[in-house]
Amino acid sequence: MEYSQATMNLETPINQLKGVGPAFLKRLERLGIRTIKDLFFHFPYRYEDFSDVRPITELSAQQSFCVQGKILAIKTTRTWKKKMFLTEAVVEDKSGAIKAVWFNQPYLTKNLGKGDFIFLVGKVSRGKQGLYLSNPVYEKKLDDKALTHTARIVPIYPETAGISSRWLRYTLQSLLRQFKNNIPEVLPADILKENNFPQRDQALWQIHFPNSLKEAQQAKERFSFEQLFLIELAVLREKLKLNKEKAPAIPINVDVIKRFVDSLSFKLTDAQRKCAWQILKDLEKKRPMSRLLEGDVGSGKTVVAVIPALNAVKAGYQVVFMTPTEILAKQHFREVAKLLAPFKIKVALLTGKEDKVTSQKIIHETRDGLKPEVLEISRRKLLEKTKQGEIAIIVGTHSLIQDKVKFPEQGQGLALCIIDEQHRFGVEQRTKLIKRKGQSSREIPHLLSMTATPIPRTLALTIYGDLDFALLDEMPTGRKKIITKIALPKERDKAYQFIRDQVVLGNQAFVICPRIEASKKKDREKKSSWDEVKAVKEEYEKLSNNIFPDLRLAMVHGKMKTKERNKVMLDFKNKKIDVLVATSVVEVGVDIPGATVMVIEGAERFGLAQLHQFRGRIGRSNQQAYCFLFTDSNSQKTHQRLRAIIKAEDGFQLAQKDLEIRGPGSLYGLKQWGIPDLAMKNLGNLPLVEKTREKAKELLREDSSLKDFPLLKKELAGISKSLHLE
Ligand code: ADP
Ligand code: MG
Looking at the predicted structure, is the pLDDT value of residue 529 above 50? Predict the structure, then answer.
């Protein structure tokens, strides 16, 4: 592969490489590779060391070796059933000769011929006529070229169908050669020096084609540092940017808040009071708040958010309340409207895509201060009323940040954005939301994000370092602790009988299965165990035909249409279904107060925090709830891990445990956050996290605009984008 260097840079799309057509493009895309840079940063996940080239006579069966030699003979034949091509070659070195055998690679004889000098790597087997190499990796030795696949430390990459490590090695080696001295360094010189890191282009060579495992390790350390450092910088810069902005200072109206708290049908927990107060104090300041409210499922976050919302509205401002899904938007709309019914506040719901003008739009207005009346109005009217400042609180999905939604230019305007289960919402987006005109110094809204995902403190500081935190660490009283048990396969019948008994009492049950079908990647990694996975469909068939033929069963999974899924969930909520068989889609969803039992199949396959989230779907009423964790595993480690969930009081402990045992990748939701692989692996590495943060702070103190580090700045733009900071 030869390319014209003049026209290529790191950002060049991968399809501009010769030989990368639409089919390859698609496969590469699956690996997340779109540009040459992505390819360079597709790192090996392990290496095989074949640098030791052995004399042929020293080989022994059942082990892998690398040998070199001359081809004495080579031929391809068809096997007797004519079903298979068989290529056989005899290769000789100074010590002796050995046969190499390949199946179904007839083109080999086109590449290799008698007299060629080759390297072979493969497993030695014993046949009738002695030892032979079966299906070895081969490589011709050309005079001037270094070896790529043999007689060295060979990188093994994450692959996908049609993209082999061999292809990646070949392409990478040729490309890296062409980019020699043309890969800009992004790390400041003193950081390189201090840590003894190799230069970026050198490090890329070292990570892909190391001369020793030590070289590979050195490069890995450099890139781990680099990726975390970039994340820290991006997050800290976002914070600096925010500090320069102004937000409306909203005075605390103690009277109104008191009235609101008195109007509630329950008593707020101390944690709720504390968090609400923290937020109110933030909003009093001219500095924009960026706060993440963390609290377990059912800890009562909504009402905490409604308090500052009400306070802002009473001071004459608008509030938006954004949710990730339509179901949640509707649920929040109802909830907020109900909570604020005594205050004669206009709450609106905006859902659907921009082009679906017929989608539901409901505006609701309190008349008698008790029962909210809900009126349907057109989208156009709703947008108009929002722009005129007539609507106090507007609830909706992401469609809220579309250009069409405008808030008043004059008057108080939008002061607070509340976001449920969506943590990233940068300064840019906030600015966009209020449509700042020209250079005028209009204020930007405060931000309150909410999440039920327990994020360990170390992690939170790294990826959400631009946010402050508030923790709801107390559950409303009256909730009973869910009784959780680890169940062995032989206890299955008992569990089913238990479900039956509960259904007779008028209660409902969940059965959670690990996945719809074995995913490709996992399949490759642990084939045998995935064969046993209870596919949700199979489980549903089994339960409805054999176990509970007389009960009402249904299933939900991610491959269903949203509409169908919503219908099933609604039926379940309305007690038209007794047992719901589901995949992890139930993690985020509607409340099912009637569900008192949950069976989790293949429990060992889930992270602890995730199991905790599942479990949070039950036990939401005053009835005692039960959770059975089924596992076929006899591993002591698995049982120990599962026992942690029986003991744990809250999701944070579990998340921290998960982080320690399974690594950051296991944390629910972390995969979507666009964190590069190495950084992900190192998120649990506290010393490195702290070091990179310190260095990032230091650099920003000296040069907050990074004017002396243009390449670093450019690199940051990419990171900020993938972290959704911009
Ligand atoms: P989450 O934190 O999961 O968003 P919600 O805000 O949906 O939780 O609250 C869950 C349920 O608990 C709601 O029905 C809500 O009315 C109720 N709730 C909230 N706070 C309290 C409290 N202090 N005491 C009793 N029930 C409460
Ligand atoms: Mg909630």
Answer: no
